[in-house]
From TrEMBL, chain A:
Source species: Ancylobacter pratisalsi
Entry's localization field: Cell membrane
Keyword Transferase on entry: no
Protein name as catalogued: Branched-chain amino acid ABC transporter permease
GO cellular component labels: plasma membrane
TM annotation in the entry: 12-36, 43-62, 68-90, 102-122, 142-165, 194-213, 280-299
Statement: the UniProt record of this protein carries the keyword Membrane: yes
Lineage: Bacteria, Pseudomonadati, Pseudomonadota, Alphaproteobacteria, Hyphomicrobiales
Main location: membrane
Gene Ontology biological process terms from the UniProt entry: D-alanine transmembrane transport; L-alanine transport; L-isoleucine import across plasma membrane
A GO MF label: L-isoleucine transmembrane transporter activity
Family in the record: Belongs to the binding-protein-dependent transport system permease family. LivHM subfamily.
UniProt superkingdom: Bacteria
TrEMBL record, chain B:
UniProt KW Transmembrane keyword: yes
Membrane topology reported for the UniProt record: Multi-pass membrane protein
Domain of life: Bacteria
Subcellular location: Cell membrane
Protein name as annotated: Branched-chain amino acid ABC transporter permease
Any one GO CC term of the record: plasma membrane
One Pfam family from the record: BPD_transp_2
């Protein structure tokens, strides 16, 4: 029993790491632009495919060191793609209603998904792993090196982001723009630089998550971004959108809820609610949390003035 | 309300012409025309919540699905029930309206994007349920062998037959949403859209107003679903993905929020563009996405402004005597 719970916790942390990495991209964009960047989940897919192409080109499948190289290049490529998406599709709409950029993001999501499909093909691709193979036994639970690596990479990236945002000059600019873009521009901060930076880091992290995800499950499909992206977005809201620690907490929490619900619900309900309902646990939890804490778990209390909802759409 | 007979005539002549011309069209364009009308109806329904009340609902497809499954379950061999079309239309939109209230109650406290994401979740929950309640919905295989709709002794089979159902229905929905906008409820809805707190301060029961909006909008979605199932004679969860909700949102945003003409124009564009791109096969959706982004970049507030709604047209037709109509 204890071993089983431990095993599930480990599985939950693996999935949670991936959700958390993607959620960071959603939460940073939302924190600054109040925009649900629907294209983010497709950049996650694009990242996985670029990782696959690089693995072939560099011949590094199965080498963890090669994996680091692939991860870095993918980060930069998708980061630049994210910056271009923002410049092309969101920047011109910054002064319009809030619905327009969101739908433009949807349009971009369609474009990216189909570009990935045209280049990578419709069929699921077998994905070479960049992660070390092998397992260790821990109090009766089996932990693979893959899982440990995913968790470690995610934690390193998240700590790196936290340090970057809180300790560096550029990070201060990002926070200033997130706080209030107009005031920030009054003190000489160019909001566009900060926003471009956000659109570089967020999709970059998402792309690394894409490589990790596909390496772990061994497949990549051009449609995989949607469901994972929705869950990562749920995680971002769960933790309190706009908050970086919130996204991390939300990601791990969602991983835990999903893993345990999938494992225990069929037992508890006598098979009435089976594992096929996995994808709706996330949304059900989201609805419940939002009803009791509309700003998410770590979200700031949103006062009437700070939230721009008065004429939302 | 002394709307001019000339304006009323304009609103009658065009649909009559559509029916007349439809007789000479081949099946393929007729099918597209049907689809456009169906999406225009759905768009007008969703407009009540998104355009009038300013509440972004990304789960509209759920109501559409409920309506479609109502026809699929109550008029097919699935359970051997074969109810008449009108009865199912009422039942389907009734259940959808009830679901609208059920969704409305818990999410009333939420605003903006939170509301959007919860409604999205609701749409997904309904889809997953349809996918898994095998005993009821036959799961992913869907329900086939659905009855043809019989109306006034006619059997609706060809796309042209459905034009006779869709055109009058669209006019009814059109008049309905237009009158809603001009009514006290419409005023309350725009008050909620512009500033909820001020609206509440003025004594508007925002909770009730929002619930009514959710309910009526869901009923129209449900009716659309019943017709969709009668047209397709086959339903499966595949037809009710998040993408479908988005298309309907796009229909009203591209056309112009809160304007029934906008919903018509938006539906026309969003259905026609992919049809015109059919020749490009694999590149079709890519080009569609690019077209969407370009349209939104070019006209972020939609193609037809709220200002040029039916009331404006009525005044124009009445000979430019502005101001004689309270509805603006």
């Amino acid at each position: 029993m204890g071993a089983l719970i431990l095993q599930q916790t480990i599985n939950a942390l693996t999935v949670g790491s991936i959700y958390a990495l993607i959620a960071l991209g959603y939460t940073m964009v939302y924190g600054v632009l109040r925009l649900i960047n629907f294209a983010h989940s497709e950049l996650f897919t694009a990242g996985a495919f670029i990782g696959l192409a690089l693995s072939g080109a560099l011949g590094v499948a199965g080498h963890p060191m090669g994996g680091i190289l692939v991860g870095l290049i993918t980060f930069v490529v998708i980061g630049l793609a994210g910056v271009s998406v923002e410049i092309v599709a969101y920047r011109p709409l910054r002064r319009t209603s809030r619905l327009a950029p969101m739908l433009s993001a949807l349009g971009m999501a369609v474009v990216i998904q189909n570009a990935v499909m045209l280049i990578g093909g419709r069929r699921p691709l077998i994905y070479p792993s960049f992660l070390p193979s092998g397992v260790i036994e821990l109090f009766g639970a089996i932990v693979s090196y893959k899982q440990i690596t995913i968790f470690a990479v995610a934690v390193v990236l998240m700590i790196g982001l936290e340090l970057f945002v809180n300790r560096t000059n550029l990070g201060v600019r990002i926070r200033a723009v997130a706080e209030n873009a107009e005031t920030a521009s009054l003190v000489g901060i160019n909001p566009n630089t900060a926003i471009s930076l956000i659109f570089f880091i967020g999709p970059g992290l998402g792309a690394v998550a894409g490589v990790l995800y596909s390496s772990f499950y061994g497949v990549a499909t051009f449609t995989m971004g949607f469901v994972i992206g929705m869950k990562a977005f749920t995680a971002a809201i769960l933790g309190g959108i706009g908050s970086i620690p919130g996204a991390v907490l939300g990601g791990f929490l969602l991983g835990i809820i999903e893993t345990f619900a999938t494992a225990w619900m069929p037992v508890l309900t006598g098979g009435l609610i089976g594992t096929e309902y996995r994808d709706i646990f996330a949304f059900s939890v989201l609805v419940l949390i939002l009803l009791f804490r509309p700003a998410g778990l770590l979200g700031e209390h949103i006062s009437e003035e700070t939230m721009v909802y008065k004429s939302d759409f | 309300m002394n709307t001019s007979w000339r304006g009323a005539l304009a609103l009658l002549v065009i649909p009559a012409m559509v029916l007349l011309i439809g007789q000479f069209l081949p099946t393929y364009p007729l099918r597209i025309l049907d689809t456009i009308l169906l999406y225009a109806i759905l768009g007008m329904g969703l407009n009540i919540v998104v355009g009038y009340a300013g509440l972004l609902d990304l789960g509209y497809v759920a109501f559409y699905a409920i309506g479609a499954y109502a026809w699929a379950l109550l008029a097919s061999g699935q359970f051997g029930i074969h109810l008449p079309f009108w009865l199912v239309l009422i039942i389907g939109s009734g259940i959808a309206g009830f679901a609208g209230i059920l969704l409305g109650i818990p999410v009333l406290r939420l605003r903006g994007d939170y509301l959007a994401i919860v409604t999205l979740g609701f749409g997904e929950i309904i889809r997953v349920l349809m996918n898994n309640l095998d005993g009821l919905t036959n799961g992913p295989q869907g329900i086939s062998r659905i009855d043809a709709a019989h109306i006034f002794g006619f059997t609706l089979e060809t796309p042209y037959d459905f034009l006779w159902l869709l055109v009058p229905l669209m006019m009814v929905v059109f008049l309905f949403v237009w009158r809603i906008q001009a009514s006290a409820l419409g005023t309350a809805l725009s008050a909620v859209r512009e500033d909820q707190d001020a609206a509440r301060g003025c004594g508007i029961d925002t909770t009730r107003v929002k619930l009514v909006a959710f309910c009526t909008s869901a009923m129209i979605g449900g009716a659309g679903g019943v017709i969709f199932a009668a047209m397709q004679r086959f339903v499966s969860p595949e037809s009710f993905t998040f993408w479908e909700s988005l298309i309907i949102v796009l229909v009203i945003v591209v056309g112009g929020l809160g304007n029934p003409f906008g919903a018509l124009l938006g539906a026309t564009l969003l259905i026609l563009i992919p049809e015109m791109l059919r020749a490009y096969a694999d590149y079709r959706l890519l080009l569609y996405g690019i077209a969407l982004v370009i349209i939104i970049l070019a006209r972020p507030h939609g193609l037809i402004s709220r200002r040029y709604g039916p009331s404006w047209l009525m005044r124009k037709c009445a000979g430019g005597r502005g101001g004689d109509n309270a509805a603006v």
